[in-house]
Write a structure and sequence with these properties.
Order of helices and strands: EHEHEHEHEHEHEHEHEHEEHH
Subunit structure: Homotetramer.
Largest sheet: 7 strands, mixed
Keywords: Allosteric enzyme, ATP-binding, Cytoplasm, Glycolysis, Kinase, Magnesium, Metal-binding, Nucleotide-binding, Transferase
Bound molecules: adenosine-5'-triphosphate
Shape: elongated
Family: Belongs to the phosphofructokinase type A (PFKA) family. ATP-dependent PFK group I subfamily. Prokaryotic clade 'B1' sub-subfamily.
Domain Phosphofructokinase: 3-280
GO biological process, one term: fructose 1,6-bisphosphate metabolic process
Length: 324
């Protein structure tokens, strides 16, 4: 392989730039060419490429978002679209690509690899941490730190006014952010999609907490929680059943996806970028690079797409004990 492309696809996350930098510099280190593809698969179809060298990625390790931009491409989901993308890569002399993204981006890469026997590697980039084959996805650690920073601030006002706060965090169908930031932020209750707490148990728990002398509390709720009510309906329901509580809702939203990546995410991005490029150079293809037990590993893309990234049940127990 003489030339590798790198792209970011799907939702952005902090650490994507550090991963782009790592891919580009690993190519330079091994004296092969690297091109950046703008706007994910859409830019691949349109041939929106830019040559990248070690100096073109200076000053980005500390930046959130992605300098290559990201996009969702409907056209890439069609075989005509993918043929156009293939032709563009051929024209540019690209012999393999590294895609930084989530499940959808990996699915696209997997299909593309099958169709054209084109070497591909994936780097998991999403704050949700919902990908099988890695303990951490790029941006997850940064998002956790952002969330606990917010919870700490909310706690100040909650305790000054003796209030109960419902804090909704991101994570789509996964509760990783809620569970970990809930424990790290000292939440009273944590509601996640993987564990059906139930409305009755929530009321019981809040009643108990009032009786135990707590004057203010924070409940962290994953956006994908399946309690059957959105966070505002949940507030109304709890207030109607427990009039002693005055509740405020805070939906943290997209701030969780931005910001300078944490040191952990920068190191993770650097390690995964090196591995992704070196795999392609060794003739490996169709894998996702990830981190398991602090070792860089590779998982077949199909397995990464199909597998479940389960939550750590032990954390649920820790959370329960902490809210005594
Ligand atoms: P995030 O986790 O942030 O949503 P993602 O990578 O899962 O990231 P998607 O929007 O699902 O984000 O996918 C990104 C892109 O990957 C899509 O816009 C599309 O171009 C491509 N893609 C997704 N699914 C397929 C598919 N089945 N076939 C071909 N391409 C696909």
């Amino acid at each position: 392989i003489k030339k590798i492309a790198v792209l970011t696809s799907g939702g952005d996350s902090p650490g994507m730039n550090a991963a782009i930098r790592s891919v580009v510099r690993t190519c330079a280190y091994h004296q092969i060419e690297c091109v950046g593809i703008y706007r994910g698969y859409q830019g691949m179809i349109e041939g929106d490429f830019i040559p990248m060298g070690p100096r073109t990625v200076h000053n980005i390790i500390n930046k959130g978002g992605t300098i290559l931009k990201s996009a969702r491409s409907k056209e890439f989901m069609t075989s005509e679209g993918r043929k156009k993308a293939y032709d563009q890569l051929q024209k540019a002399g690209v012999e393999g690509f590294v895609v930084i993204g989530g499940d959808g981006s990996f699915t696209g890469a997997e299909i593309f690899n099958k169709e054209f026997q084109f070497p591909v590697m994936g780097i998991p980039g999403t704050i949700d941490n919902d990908i099988f084959g890695t303990s951490h996805t790029l941006g997850y650690d940064t998002a956790l730190n952002t969330v606990i920073d917010c919870i700490d601030k909310i706690r100040d006002t909650a305790s000054s006014h003796n209030r109960l706060f419902f804090v909704e965090v991101m994570g789509r169908d996964a509760g990783h952010i809620a569970l970990n930031a809930g424990i790290g932020g000292g939440a009273e209750e944590i509601l996640i999609p993987e564990e059906e707490l139930g409305l009755e148990r929530l009321l019981e728990s809040l009643k108990k907490s009032k009786a135990s002398g707590k004057s203010s509390s924070i409940v962290v709720i994953a956006e994908g929680d399946k309690i059957g009510k959105n966070v505002f309906e949940l507030k109304d329901y709890v207030e109607a059943n427990l009039p002693e509580y005055e509740i405020r809702v805070s939906v943290l939203g997209h701030m969780q996806r931005g910001g300078a990546p944490s040191c952990y995410d920068r190191v993770l991005a650097s390690r995964l970028g090196v591995k992704a490029v070196e795999c392609l150079l060794e003739g490996k293809s169709n894998f996702m690079v990830g981190m398991l037990n602090d070792k860089v590993t590779i998982t077949p893309l199909l397995q990464a797409i199909k597998g479940e990234s389960e939550i750590d049940r032990e954390l649920l127990r820790v959370a329960e004990i902490m809210s005594v």
